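Input sequence (128 aa), recorded before submission:
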Amino acid sequence: QVQLVESGGGLVQAGGSLRLSCAASGRTFGGYAMGWFRQASGKVREFVAAISSSGSTTYSADSVKGRFTISRDNAKNTVYLQMNSLKPEDTAVYYCAAKGTLRIESNVYTGTGAYDYWGQGTQVTVSS
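Predicted structure, token format:
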């Protein structure tokens, strides 16, 4: 069992930056691939970025590529989402998710159904 707690959300002007953190507790963090998703009001949850359990592979949605960066610090059991050049359309509740892997691997996962554990979410609001 893994518990995930997101933090770092808030209100920011367009063009600004935020860094989201997701602290994990429970089983060994290094054995999990991680992802960030977001859900805007009235819309379905969508993939934002993912990182492999090895940390060697990352992948981002086209809508955030070049602006958002996912990273992880296994010593701190934390995954981050650095968000730069924020736009009003980035406004959403951001969720981190964890997928258990049988071994340390380089795969990343983009589907919500692939993940085993979810955090409660943190609100990001970008004003124009």
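Checked by second reader. The first strand starts at residue 2 and ends at 7.
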